[in-house]
Specification:
Length: 402
């Protein structure tokens, strides 16, 4: 295992950057029939909305899978656009880049927001609980149907890092699945801890408390927007840090608006209050579905590489492929200790920590430094051309080139 640290200077007083651009459901749709979930339930038809960039080679082996985080979509350009394109870390002149909206999501894939053909209404709570492993397996099935045989790397941050790790394991559990040769996991973990489960639950509780929730069977035209807004506000606190909030907001107050000579001015509010309320409203404007928020956070809580496989640490030791494990120094949601644990037990891993005040969202906002790491790691894979790799189970280079 090798380690490196990338340092960044303090941000200074500047606007708090936004992690996402335009979000929509654009893309192509693949259908997997009779898909059996981890809980034993069979879904007759699973739709997966996906997008691709670059050209798949004749052997179906130049593939990068990019896995999005909790509220992401299939459009990498919206959240990791600086990585995508010719000469960039996800070099489209070399790689065929694939990204799909996860099972249970609300940007085109099957989930609570999907319309039930029988009733013409959203599925809502009738859509079953799914797991991170379910998400990984259905995407591998889609890739197989698209002619993919071998995957250079599965890559993701936060929830996406969980899916990327699960894919790496799942790809070798069943014959004839596309084989993943390396993995990049950023600001993530191999299993959800009580800290993250608790944070997920209080966010779900905010949604449940909205009278419009109706046990998940609300009408699509009357969603529980108040509950979703509060859940998002809670999440935004865990995505950043105490120093970042102080640098941006301090104790500044917004000037009250004068309502008129006969009406008193509204009470002043702190700038941080205005920011969080705006983030809640913006999330609703994006149209993120409350049912998906509940099902996806539940899926994250289910995440455990050791589940039904044996001892957690022994499972990690059996993952022989190269894995790039990356931390953000100030991450309070998935602290550095969790990535260090992964790196300690993954036998062919390298760990890098990025010094950043951005907190968990640093995996989206520290694009330049993360790009350096990803480019270097993928460059190692190129040194082992397919004809020189030997057996599929043989590990590739892991020495850091940074």
């Amino acid at each position: 295992m090798s380690r490196a640290t990338l340092k960044s200077s303090p941000t200074g007083a500047k606007p708090m950057a936004d992690e996402y651009g335009k979000m929509n459901s654009d893309g192509s749709t693949a259908v997997v029939t009779d898909f059996k979930l981890d809980n034993g339930q069979v879904l007759p038809k699973v739709e997966t909305r996906y997008r691709t960039w670059g050209t798949l080679n004749s052997s179906g082996s130049n593939v990068l899978i990019v896995c999005h985080a909790l509220t992401g979509n299939a459009n990498v350009e919206s959240w990791w656009g600086s990585f995508l394109g010719q000469g960039k870390p996800f070099d489209t002149s070399k790689y065929w880049v694939f990204c799909a909206n996860v099972l249970g999501g609300c940007y085109g894939s099957s989930g609570p927001a999907a319309i039930d053909p029988a009733s013409g209404k959203r599925m809502g709570a009738a859509f079953p609980k799914v797991t991170i492993r379910d998400m990984a397996r259905v995407q591998l099935e889609v890739l197989k149907s698209l002619g993919v045989r071998e995957i250079v790397a599965s890559i993701g941050g936060s929830m996406g890092g969980m899916v990327a790790l699960e894919m790496a394991v799942c790809s070798r559990e069943v014959p004839h699945r596309p084989i993943i040769r390396s993995c990049v996991t950023l600001s993530s973990s191999g299993r959800h801890q009580p800290w993250q489960i608790g944070i997920s639950e209080v966010q779900r509780a905010a949604i449940y408390a909205d009278p419009k929730w109706k046990n998940g069977m609300y009408h699509q035209q009357e969603p529980p927007t108040d509950g979703v807004s509060v859940a998002r506000m809670m999440a935004m606190l865990t995505y950043r840090t105490h120093p970042a909030y102080w640098t941006k907001f301090g104790r500044d107050e917004k000037e009250p608006e004068q309502a008129g000579p006969s009406r008193p001015a509204a009470a002043s509010t702190f700038e941080v209050e205005e920011y969080l309320r705006a983030q809640g409203s913006k999330f609703n404007e994006r149209g993120f579905d409350a049912g998906s928020y509940v099902r996806l956070t539940q899926a994250m809580d289910s995440h455990d590489l050791g589940r039904d496989r044996g001892d957690y640490y022994e499972v990690l030791k059996k993952i022989q492929i190269p894995v790039l494990v990356t931390s953000i120094s100030s991450d309070v949601l998935y602290p550095v200790s969790e990535q260090l644990e992964l790196a300690q037990y993954l036998p062919n891993s390298q760990h890098h920590m990025i010094e950043s005040p951005e907190g968990h969202d640093g995996f989206l906002l520290e694009g330049r430094k993360i790009g350096i790491l990803v480019r270097g790691f993928l460059g190692q894979m190129e040194y082992e051309a397919p004809v020189h790799r030997g057996p599929v189970g043989q590990a590739l280079l892991t020495a850091s080139k940074l």
